[in-house]
Design brief:
By secondary structure, the protein is of the alpha+beta class. It has three domains: 151 residues, 2-Layer Sandwich (Beta Polymerase, domain 2), CATH 3.30.460.10; 116 residues, no CATH class; 64 residues, no CATH class. It has 22 helices and eleven strands. Strand 3 and strand 4 form a beta hairpin. Helix 14 crosses helix 16.
């Protein structure tokens, strides 16, 4: 099958020019270039894909360096792995030397040697991802499809390339479900059976690799469907016995999408995903997935705040109390609790903090207080906090009001802790 005309219609002009430039240069260097992976799959499905993958029979790094010399591109190379990344403002192109992989033991990272395009396709996860399009002048546009991926796209199947695939690399379990749910495909019967049999092999996979696959799921448009399916199959429970991907998550995830910026969504999803876990179970998960410190803090804060939500359940809680309780926590942990809390008064207090209270600042600052005769250090800090609380609680509204309040505290301040004065 030749799909040259489809490529021309499918790729945006800028991308097409780059691809043509690379294949021309590859040819001059005596190399062969191919489009592979997701972009080929998505071309058949008619979906846009701005992350191109190319495989080169030859030296991909040298080729990428040559291309970067003549164009305004960002270039990152990994000579040890024979890979490079070229970046424009709105798309990226990964370019790799064709390789052949073998697994010394299940779950280990593969041993890599350079090979042909066919070797490179043989090491891939599913038939729909194991197709390439030749950019070699003599057969430009020809589809290379050794596992009948295009038939599987038509039949809407996710199919592994050989029966040992999930055993070799159990991260493919997560990948299979991610594609199944994203594309609305079905796991082909033997693939489903092998997947179920291979769930215990997840124990051979490092925390970083499982976390990476979970993060890819959390970047999907509707991660809850993959998590639900992983829960149904018992995959989540193999990672942590308390994890579930149930309907509660689906409802909360759709709420999260309405409220949060897209860059923050994966972390917010994860905070909601662990919401039903105890602090101990969550610690076990953090350890199992080797969660980096910043993300671990958001998860811990989520559950710690959850255990203190009773402090916010009344509508009469003062704004300053809300502020000084919540300022300690990662903002996404606060957001997760606002989404997850079942009490409407708690929820509105959390939402008030997110929308307004956390941005409240006094109009006077340290310098203006010094000009009023307050001395630097503890005194100043305490006065500023009194002003801030008064502002949060609506007791002062103007700079003049803040000044009056500050001055009213002056005679009583003797280097001791201040009592908040009554403001009229
Ligand atoms: P998308 O998420 O749109 O599918 P993609 O297809 O580019 O993006 P990546 O996760 O970037 O997917 O991986 C690139 C290619 O590398 C895949 O198409 C797949 O063929 C291959 N691949 C990635 N991970 C594995 C794996 N664990 N085992 C085998 N092949 C893999």
């Amino acid at each position: 099958m030749n799909v040259a005309s489809q490529i021309e219609r499918y790729l945006p002009q800028q991308m097409l020019e780059l691809v043509e430039d690379i294949s021309r240069k590859a040819n001059q260097m005596g190399h062969k270039a191919y489009l592979v992976g997701g972009v080929v799959r998505d071309l058949f499905l008619g979906y846009s894909n701005l992350d191109l993958d190319m495989v080169i029979e030859g030296d991909a790094v040298k080729l990428a360096q040559q291309i970067a010399k003549t164009r305004q591109l960002r270039l990152v190379t990994h000579p040890r792995f024979g890979t490079a990344k070229l970046g424009y403002s709105n798309f990226t192109l990964d370019i790799a030397t064709a390789r052949c992989e073998t697994y010394s033991k299940p779950g280990a990272l593969p041993t890599v040697v350079y090979g042909t395009i066919r070797d490179d396709l043989f090491r891939r996860d599913f038939s729909i991802n194991a197709m390439a399009i030749s950019l070699v002048p003599s057969n430009h546009g020809e589809l290379i499809d050794p596992f009948q991926g295009s038939d599987d796209i038509e039949r809407r199947y996710i199919r592994i390339l050989h029966s040992g695939s999930f055993r070799d690399d159990a991260t493919r379990i997560f990948r299979a479900i991610r594609y199944e749910q994203r594309l609305g495909f079905e796991l082909e019967l033997q693939t489903l059976q092998m997947l179920q049999q291979s769930i215990p092999m997840l124990d051979t996979i490092s925390g970083d690799r499982i976390r990476h696959e979970l993060e890819l799921i959390l970047k999907e448009k509707h991660p809850e469907s993959a998590l639900g399916r992983l829960g149904e199959l018992g995959v989540l429970q193999r990672v942590n016995s308390a994890l579930r991907g149930n309907g509660w998550i689906a409802e909360k995830f759709s709420k999260a999408r309405l409220l949060s910026k897209s860059g923050q969504l994966p972390t917010l999803y994860l905070c909601l995903f662990i919401y039903s876990l105890s602090q101990e179970e969550s610690e076990r998960l953090i350890h199992r997935l080797n969660v980096p410190a910043k993300l671990a803090r958001a998860l811990r804060d989520t559950l710690q705040l959850k255990s203190r939500l009773h402090l916010l359940c009344k509508t009469s809680v003062k704004h300053s109390e809300i502020y000084y309780l919540l300022r300690e926590y990662d903002p996404l942990a606060v957001q997760a609790n606002a989404i997850a809390s079942e009490s409407s008064s708690t929820r509105s207090n959390l939402e008030l903090f997110i929308a307004r209270l956390r941005h409240v600042k006094t109009l006077l600052n340290g310098d203006s207080l010094k000009k009023l005769g307050f001395s630097a250090g503890l005194e100043l800090g305490e006065i500023l906090q009194v002003l801030h609380k008064a502002k949060l609680d609506g007791e002062v509204k103007t700079a003049e009001g803040e000044k009056k309040l500050a001055l009213s505290m002056k005679p009583q301040y003797k280097g001791k802790r201040l009592k908040t004065p009554k403001v009229n």
